[in-house]
Amino acid sequence: MTRWAPVAAMLAGGVLGAAQIGKVPAAMTTIGAEFNMGLAGAALLVSLFALMAALGGLGIGLAVARIGPRRALLAGLWLGAVAAVAAALAPNAALLLAARVAEGAGFLLLVVAAPGLISACVAARDRGLAMGLWGTYMPAGIALGLVSAPLVEAQGWRFAWMVLALALGLAALLCWRLVPPGATAEVPPAVPIPAQLRALVAARRPLRIASAFATYNILYFGIAAFLPARLESLGAGTGGAGAAAALAAVANAAGNLAAGLLMRRGVAAERLVVAGALGMAVLGSGVYLVPDPTLVVGLAVLACGIGGLLPAACFALLPRAVPNPALVAPAVGLVIQGNNLAQLLAPPLIGALATQSWALASLPLLVAGLLATLAGRSLAR
Questions:
Q1: The domain boundary residue, chosen from 182, 212, 241
Q2: 352 Cβ contact partners less than 8 Å away, ≥ 6 residues apart
């Protein structure tokens, strides 16, 4: 039987955890000025999250498998909330960066533990819908963090960050009350880490899912990170370009939800991976090839919306891709590590190509789309 209350609590935790990423751009200029960090130093507050996930995603997944997903989920939420309070109170840049490292560790624990717990809380018929809902945590959370900008302007960044920290603490309380202790085995049998890694490699499907997700992130950040600059190069104003990027993020979240509904109606997740990859690559490359700003916005929104089918489908496939439930968390950690590596490496490459010609920026998107499509087709086989 499906238990939607714990699913909703974990989704709230994921969204509020991701809001701790989105809150930084809303306050970056203010923080940079207060701590004399400059814009580049303040941007480090964002990239720390991606760097930690790129280096430690699989390790966190193995740790979650060792201590149990519910304990890891609650530890991640509480660590994130306490670290977010510490960040809001930080008296200097060094302590602020340290608090952000702790926030990143908490967020990793949360997002690695949640998919397996959600899968265990829902019936097979509802699993696709539940994973589609979970797939919205990142775009929805980043949007929520960005919405804190008026609060930063009115009350200061510390007040805005404290509000988001307390909200994350409330989500931790909700999960503690609503996520059942027996959702999954709390302490799996002790399996040596090399044996877990060999089992992941032997299963093959987790590696294919990780490949599809990593190449999807090249597509998504290849569009989302450069859409404002592309529109400004075509004569659009800064405000309009930012609004277009926000609209693309909303479309991506809608794509995740659509994937959940389609899977609930019986559409195979593997087909959604292929459709999302192909559609996002073709439409996304058009963002850098057409000269009309209105058409560019339309292509970006459609690309992000169709591309949103892919992450929800990947999350739905993961619990069925491993030989036993104890490997779900390491598989999720592997996926998160791969997509954050792509998030770190792809934007500089695309940016370098865009400085030569915007048309060249379409090439990495087409290559990533091809690779993601091939990964999806291999999953279907």
A1: 182
A2: none
Give the model's pLDDT for residue 248: 86
User: How many other CB atoms are there within 10 angstroms of residue 289's CB atom?
Assistant: 12
Low-confidence ranges of the chain (pLDDT < 50): 185-187
How do residues 28-73 score in pLDDT, each as one tens digit?
778 878 888 765 666 677 677 777 777 778 778 887 877 888 999 9
Phi, psi of 187 (to 5 degrees): -125, 95
pLDDT at 165 (0 to 100): 95
Q: How far apart are CA 375 and CA 381, in angstroms?
A: 10
User: Cα(37)–Cα(24) distance, rounded to whole angstroms?
Assistant: 14
CA angle 349, 351, 352 (to 5 degrees): 65
Q: 130, 154, 182: which is the final residue of a domain?
A: 182
Q: What pLDDT shows up at residue 300?
A: 92
Burial class (CB in 10 A: 0-12, 13-18, 19+), 246: middle
Q: What's the token pair of residue 364? A: 């990495």
Are 29 and 106 contained in the same domain? yes
CA 355 to chain centre: 27
